[in-house]
Write a structure and sequence with these properties.
By secondary structure, the chain is mainly α. It has helices at about 5-10, 15-20, 30-45, 50-65, 80-95, 105-110, 115-120, 125-135, 140-150, 155-160, 165-180, 185-190, 195-210. It has 13 helices and no strands.
Length: about 220
């Protein structure tokens, strides 16, 4: 569907898209999904560390965001609002499923996820990078992913994580001190990649739901 969407709409700011979606142009929600799949996946992996659980959390987060678009008050960036929904869903999933362990306690399972994309990737590099991040305590890992991998501002990170901006800086510095200096040059292209085939799958699932709720008042 994405190729059929208006090119101008595809470049539109989040807030403009949200207003159009709320006004009935629900097909534009596909742009939102594709725009944020990578971020939500990385955030999910930083908390859950389980590939399938993260995808399920993403599906719930997108549907929840769609159903509550009218509650978005534009006081913060839409991406911040959506990421917070995802983070809350991850915390809920961890509470609801006691079999899920923090990544730092189950890093071997976390590192050895088997997907076609991972097989095609540089295994040694990806595993080394993800292993180093997996060893970070969650509070440091989440801040590191948001700031260094997703390039969010200190303010956005603080809002998402529910901490003070000063704590963001402290936790980021602590996270960096725990990682090897050589990680930074490889980080953004190698960690928690949400590849195109998976992006298409996520779009298909969520848009099927959105299409089935065409008459729903947002």
């Amino acid at each position: 569907m994405i190729g059929q969407l208006n090119a101008i709409s595809n470049q539109a700011p989040d807030e403009q898209l949200i207003k159009q979606i709320a006004a009935g142009e629900k097909e534009l929600f596909e742009i939102i999904i594709r725009r944020y799949n990578q971020r939500l996946y990385r955030v999910g992996m930083s908390v859950l560390g389980d590939d399938q659980e993260v995808e399920e959390a993403m599906q719930v987060a997108y549907i929840s965001a769609y159903e509550h678009l009218q509650q978005f008050e534009y006081r913060s960036a839409f991406g911040t609002w959506l990421t917070r929904i995802m983070l809350n869903q991850c915390y809920k999933a961890r509470r609801d499923h006691t079999r899920i362990l923090p990544v730092s306690q189950d890093s071997e399972n976390f590192i050895n996820m088997k997907t076609p994309e991972n097989v095609m990737a540089s295994k040694e590099l990806s595993q080394a990078l993800e292993n180093a991040i997996a060893q970070l305590p969650e509070k440091y890992r989440l801040v590191f992913v948001l700031r260094e991998i997703e390039d969010l501002s200190v303010r956005e990170t603080a809002e998402i994580a529910g901490i003070q901006q000063s704590n963001v800086k402290v936790r980021l510095n602590r996270a960096k001190s725990m990682l090897r200096e050589s990680l930074n040059s490889y980080m953004k292209e190698s960690i928690y990649q949400f590849h195109l085939s998976r992006c298409d799958k996520m779009v298909s699932f969520v848009m099927d739901y959105v299409g089935g709720n065409a008459g729903k008042n947002l």
